[in-house]
Amino acid sequence: MDIDRTRAMWPQIAAEIIRRIREGEYASGAKVPSVVQLADEFDVANSTAQRAMEAVRAEGLTRSEQGMGTFVL
Q1: Hey, which bits of the chain come out as E strands?
Q2: Is-contact 13 32, C-beta < 8 A?
Q3: Which of 18, 23, 27, 32 is nearest to 60 (CA)?
Q4: Terminus-to-terminus CA distance in the chain, angstroms?
Q5: CA neighbor of 36 nearest in space, from 12, 53, 61, 22
Q6: Tally of CB atoms within 10 A around 36
Q7: Cβ burial, residue 68 (10 Å; 0-12/13-18/19+)
Q8: pLDDT in tens, 11-64
Q9: 22 contacts 28 by C-beta, under 8 angstroms
Q10: How far apart (Å, rounded) are the C-alpha atoms in residues 43 and 30?
Q11: DSSP at 6
Q12: Which residue, 68, 16, 67, is CA-closest to 44?
């Protein structure tokens, strides 16, 4: 995925994660990469990756379990 650095990055990252879920790259029940892993993958700050994950959760596509991670619904 190419990120347009002239626009806010968190919505672009959220859209990519949502795409991966909808296309089955992240299957139902699968663990989604951590915020740190996503920040590394997209070369952004952890806070940017966290905001993207919050947007994905708001769409009702994932759930988080403290100490376990984030999983696709």
Answers
A1: 31-32, 62-65, 69-72
A2: no
A3: 18
A4: 23
A5: 53
A6: 11
A7: exposed
A8: 999 999 999 999 999 999 999 999 999 999 999 999 999 999 999 999 999 999
A9: no
A10: 23
A11: T
A12: 16
φ, ψ (nearest 5 deg) of residue 40: -65, -45
pTM summary value: 0.93
Would the pLDDT of 5 be above 90?
no
Instruction: Spell out the residues 6+ positions from residue 69 whose beta carbon is closer than 8 angstroms to its own.
Output: 31, 32, 34
- Pairing mode, strands 31-32 and 62-65: unpaired
Q: How many residues does the chain have?
A: 73
Phi, psi values for residue 31, rounded to 5°: -80, 130
Q: Which amino acid is at 18?
A: I
Separation CA 18–CA 5 (nearest Å): 19
CB-based contact 61:29 (threshold 8 Å): no
